[in-house]
Amino acid sequence: MWAGTAAALKGVAGTPAAGEEALTGPWAVMTSLRRYAATLHDVQRLGDRRLERRAIRRSPDGRAVLDLFPEGGYDRLLVPGVRAEVWMRPGFTPEPLHADPLARVALVLGAGNVTSIGPLDALYALVAEGAACVLKLHPLLDDLACVVEEALNPLIAGGYLAVVTGDASVGRYLCTHPLVDSVHVTGSFATYESVVAEAGPRKRVTGELGNVTPTIVVPGGWSDADVAAAAANIVSAKLHNAGFNCVSPQVLILPARWDRRPELLSSIERLLRDAPDRPAYYPGAAARFAHLSRGNDAPIVHASPDDISEPMFREEAFCALLAVVALPGEGESYLQRAVAFVNERLAGDLAVNLIARSAERGSSWLAGAIAALRYGCVSVNAWSAVGFMLPQLPWGAYRGDDRKARGSGYGVVHNGLLLAGTEKAVLYAPFSPFIKPPWYVTNRNRAAIGAALCDFERTRSPAAFAKVALLGLTG
Predict the structure, then answer these.
(1) What is the band of 316 on the pLDDT scale with cuts at 50, 70, 90?
(2) What is the pLDDT of residues 44-100, one digit of tens each?
(3) What is the pLDDT of residue 407?
(4) How do 105-109 and 182-186 pair as beta strands?
(5) What mean pLDDT is predicted for residues 168-197?
(6) 38 alpha carbon, distance to own chain's centre
(7) Which phi and psi angles does 67 have, rounded to 5°?
(8) Fewest 10 Å CB contacts: which of 206, 211, 246, 447?
(9) How many CA atoms does the CB half-sphere of 343 hold within 13 Å?
(10) How far apart are CA 20 and CA 448, in angstroms?
(11) CA 62/CA 55 separation, integer angstroms
(12) What average pLDDT does this structure show over 232-258?
């Protein structure tokens, strides 16, 4: 019901794209509930000693690193080859997060693009802050209110959660309500500033405020199959949810003198051109596309890295538009330039993608680039949205001591192990995955696999897993 309602709202009911809504809606919430339950069980049994069983490593620049994923056999089978870790801020060791003893009521102002964002943020307020929560849905998703209420009914019946709808005036009223102690908002930086002003100085306001998401291609001796795999990775992430994602790839960085650059761009353009049209359901998409594409219809614009006025470097597109930037250099020198460019020139610090073949992944200069990237999620070969979907990982803007307020917000959510002092999450995946990810535009089973994952998460049975595995292997 959840996925079907969301697909109808977005105009993709009955199409392969409808499968996205099960994956990014109910499945994301179900996996988070299971992870929180496991964490709270550990808190009850072990208290502050619950992290002692996890090995701590050191990053190239000395920060503590904790492996978070995979956690068990099903994790390894469902997403083979994917692993994830969390890097702590300088001087921090992994410590458990403790709820705010003064928290009473938290307000969550939900997003209008991904249907799990509001419920997931509300769950974090309940578990991590120890507060009761009011979840105000975005007006675009008001029709989902009854579905969310039914899904989270035990929390509502217990008096821990309330779900409300309405326009901006309802949000302003709740922000100023004397019983509300904290506010979390997903939206634009302008929305965040407005919420801060409404809430006043005595209330803590956190937010996830979007990103000009970069994808850095690490060059090498790629085959034709490598080019096709990278193009499918990039385009699938770009077209997911019609581009209405805060981590939708927006700026693609390539080496200027790489011999495979023309083939990769040609493959990307062909996949974008051949993809079925999707309704631009999010308000303002057509105007943003026209503005950022300079009035052209093509889904790709070429931008100069030296153009300080380039709007694709400063404004979140929130539509199916991709900018391509070519940088000089080879190998390590190119990658150093790419890291400096995205750190210093692009708005936001939420997530960044790197695409590198296995031979390049093992290099010391790639490890150095991962350490130097100032983003809350750094993803190698997996789309950074996987970091949003894995409940173990903290999700939010970069939290290093030297971070600049570049527009992606403050605080974290998800964070299923309830860790304090985190700086960023780092994901690693195979360059060409054995099982095609369910959001790939080339996956023949993407209409069905989201529902199958929900069924598996509900039952955790071998039969349900077998169905997911079959869909994955034949996709």
Answers:
(1) very high
(2) 999 888 888 788 999 888 889 999 999 989 999 999 999 999 999 988 888 999 877
(3) 66
(4) parallel
(5) 94
(6) 22
(7) -75, 130
(8) 447
(9) 17
(10) 9
(11) 15
(12) 97
**Contact in structure between 387 and 28 (CB atoms under 8 Å):** no
The two three-digit tokens of residue 174, written as one number? 């709740």
The two three-digit tokens of residue 121, written as one number: 């943020």
* Pairing assessment for the beta strands 83-88 and 322-327 based on DSSP bridges: unpaired
Instruction: State the amino acid at position 89 in one-letter form.
Output: R
Q: CA-to-CA distance for 82 and 430, rounded, in angstroms?
A: 7
Residues 444, 453: Cα–Cα separation, whole Å: 16
Contact call for residues 341 and 319 (beta carbons, < 8 A): no
Measured from the Cβ of residue 172, the count of other Cβ atoms closer than 10 Å reads 15
SS3 of the chain: the string is: CHHHHHHHHCCCCCCHHHHHHHHHHHHHHHHHHHHHHHHHHHHHHHHHHHHCCCCEEECCCCCEEEEEECCCHHHHHHCCCCEEEEEECCCCCCEECCCCCCCCEEEEECCCCCCCHHHHHHHHHHHHCCCEEEEECCHHHHHHHHHHHHHCHHHHHCCCEEEECCCHHHHHHHHHCCCCCEEEEECCHHHHHHHHHHHCCCCEEEEECCCCEEEEECCCCCCHHHHHHHHHHHHHHHHHHHHCCCCCEEEEEEECCCCCHHHHHHHHHHHHHHCCCCCCCCCCHHHHHHHHCCCCCCCEEECCCCCCCCHHHHCCCCCCCEEEEEECCCHHHHHHHHHHHHHHHCCCCCEEEEECCHHHHCCHHHHHHHHHCCCCEEEECCCCHHHHHCCCCEEECCCCCCCCCCCCEECEEECCCCEECEEEEEEECCCCCCCCCCCCCCCCCHHHHHHHHHHHHHHCCHHHHHHHHHHHHCC
- Whether 119 contacts 195, CB under 8 Å: no
Instruction: Please compute, for residue 195, the number of CA atoms within 13 A of its CA located in the half-sphere on the CB side.
Output: 29
Structure tokens at 330: 């080879």
Residue % of the chain over a pLDDT of 70: 99
Average pLDDT on 415-440 reads: 95
Give 2's pLDDT tier (boundaries 50, 70, 90). very high
